[in-house]
Amino acid sequence: MSTFPTPRRGARLALAAAVTVAAALTGPVSYATSGSTAEAKPSPGAPGLGDPMFPLDGNGGYKVDRYLLDFDWQAPRTPFEATATIKATATQALSRFNLDFGGNTLHAVTVDGKAAGTARAGDELTVTPKSPLPKGRSFTVKVTYTADPTQVRHRDDAIEDYGWIPTPDGTVVYPQPNGARLIFPANDHPSQRAPITFRITTPKDLTAVANGKLVDKSAGPGDRVRWTYDSEQPLSTQLVQLAVGKFTLDDRTGPGGLPIRDVVPDALVEPTAKYRELTADHLAWLQERLGPYPFNRYGILVGDTDLGVALETQTLSLVPKADLLGTQVDAERNLVHELTHQWFGDSVALKSWSDLWVSEGHARFYERLYSQAHGGDSFEAAMKAAYKAHDQWRKDFGAPAEPTEPNLFKRMRYDGSALVLYALREHVGDAAFQKIERAWVTQYRGKAASTQDYVDLASRVTGQDLEGFLKPWLYGAKTPPMPGHPDWVVDPAT
Fold first, then answer.
1. What SS3 class is residue 59?
2. Are 395 and 377 within 8 A, CB to CB?
3. Local structure of 309: helix, strand or coil
4. Which residue ranges does the record assign to the Peptidase M1 membrane alanine aminopeptidase domain (predicted)?
5. For the chain, what percent of residues have pLDDT higher than 90?
6. pLDDT digits (tens, 9 = 90+) for 274-332
7. Are 169 and 246 in contact (CB under 8 A)?
8. How far apart are the first and last CA of the chain?
9. Does residue 258 contact residue 286 with C-beta atoms inside 8 Å?
10. 246-341 has which CATH code?
11. Do 349-475 and 43-244 fall under one CATH topology?
């Protein structure tokens, strides 16, 4: 997500975003073991993964293998019927398990075709199958519900509004950080990845799009069309994109024949074309530094909204129209930022929300590096300014790798985290830094990785123990000296 400023909406929907802590559940049912074999008794899966930022996000006891989402879209701001089919594998013997599911009207839940018991508390949907699920068992959960595309929540940081974001003739979605649960029941944590099949039925004059590849488009009764997309690769729920509207699909190719598909509201095709056509150049520039693009396709979804920030939804970045209607320098900063996330944050996912600095810091680092070479401000000057403010940011927003939940998407995770990478490059040299970067996106491609993983990898690649250097930058209360810049001064925090 980019926080480079664009025009903001005049009046924000101040909807309550507090997640209600799940009510205490009854203890596990006892099940007798057969014979003398001491098999694990079925017990409840954890209602959350214990993330320091959002303890109840994600769920324990199972792994999602695939989501299949069926949406019968009707009209803007109009509820519609939806079904989520979740194919999963039990990682423990389960007496019950949870899904993250906020709002929406629940109709029924089945497990392997049999009606299951349900209970809801806040964003937790507890599912009790008719029979316990043994460890290692594959199972299928089907949830039918009425989806409410007016659901929006609000944060007092760079995210602002998230969830369903309305457009004049449809919607886009902004699920970061944990708004996917407003769209479908999920294991909603960035470390939990699974492929998704989207089947979206719309009136014939509208187009539906989603992450990945269009695999089928078929006519249905009542002048309706069903659009089927396959994400192709697993993705985190915070990176889901699903949009409906009067769109033009602009298809072309990038470096090495990579398919590029932009999704553009009809009236914005020509006004945004000049900057959108720079994507191939951005891909080539980043591949020079980071290696091959990690997915099968890429593109930009132009949001006909007054949304203030862009989002790196996997293979189809959401970019507000304002980002593409200003100066080229400003547009390219945002475009390169979201594209960089396809390596950092999308391909290499976050193990916990405290690792956000790795994702946003890298996106800001390469955004500023590119901008400096293409008419933008000096990268060094921007880092010197960030260094000056760093102690204050540490006090106000937490150290780069030690955020608090209200300050998760504040300035420290952007320029403040890019500064950590700048300091590392100054410390080890540019050649060694480039080796670290390539090793990171190669070794952890398609996986979730942590701050400690980054520190350990940097140490291995350079052959020197970098923990003593990086930990004060990432966790310390005071900003360390900047290597190579003894004249740089930090303003005291007030």
1. coil
2. no
3. coil
4. 281-473
5. 91
6. 999 999 999 999 999 999 999 999 999 999 998 889 999 999 999 999 999 999 999 99
7. yes
8. 29
9. no
10. 3.30.2010.30
11. no
Contacts of 210-217 with C-beta under 8 Å, sequence gap 24+, read 210/240, 210/241, 210/242, 210/243, 210/316, 211/235, 211/239, 211/240, 211/241, 211/242, 211/313, 211/314, 211/315, 211/316, 212/296, 212/297, 212/315, 213/296, 213/297
- Alpha carbon of 400 to those of 256, 283, 390, 421, 448: distances in Å? 36, 28, 10, 11, 19
Superfamily of 349-475 according to CATH: Neutral Protease Domain 2 (1.10.390.10)
Q: Which two tokens stand for residue 278?
A: 């720079």
DSSP class of residue 55? Answer: T
Q: Name the helix (H) or strand (E) containing 250.
A: strand 247-253
The separation between CA 138 and the C-alpha centre of its own chain, rounded to angstroms, equals: 26
> Which strands sit side by side in the sheet containing 124-128, from one edge to the other?
43-44, 94-100, 124-128, 117-121
Q: Tell me if 262 sits within 8 A of 276, measured CB to CB.
A: yes
Residue for token pair 């889901």? 240
CATH code, residues 43-244: 2.60.40.1730
User: The tokens of 435 are what?
Assistant: 């080796």
Strands (DSSP E) found in 272-387: 300-303, 317-320, 349-350
Q: Distance between CA 63 and CA 72 in Å, rounded?
A: 27
Q: Give the CA distances from residue 66 to residues 140, 233, 435, in Å, rounded to whole numbers and listed in that order.
A: 10, 10, 34
Q: Are 16 and 182 in contact (CB under 8 A)?
A: no
Span 233-277, pLDDT tens digits:
999 999 999 999 999 999 999 999 999 999 999 999 999 999 999
Quote the DSSP letter at residue 75: S
- The DSSP string of 105-127 is EEEEEEETTEE-EEEEETTEEEE
Q: Which H or E element spans position 171?
A: strand 170-174
Domains of the chain by residue range:
43-244, 246-341, 349-475
295 residue type, one letter:
F
Enter the DSSP assignment of 326: S
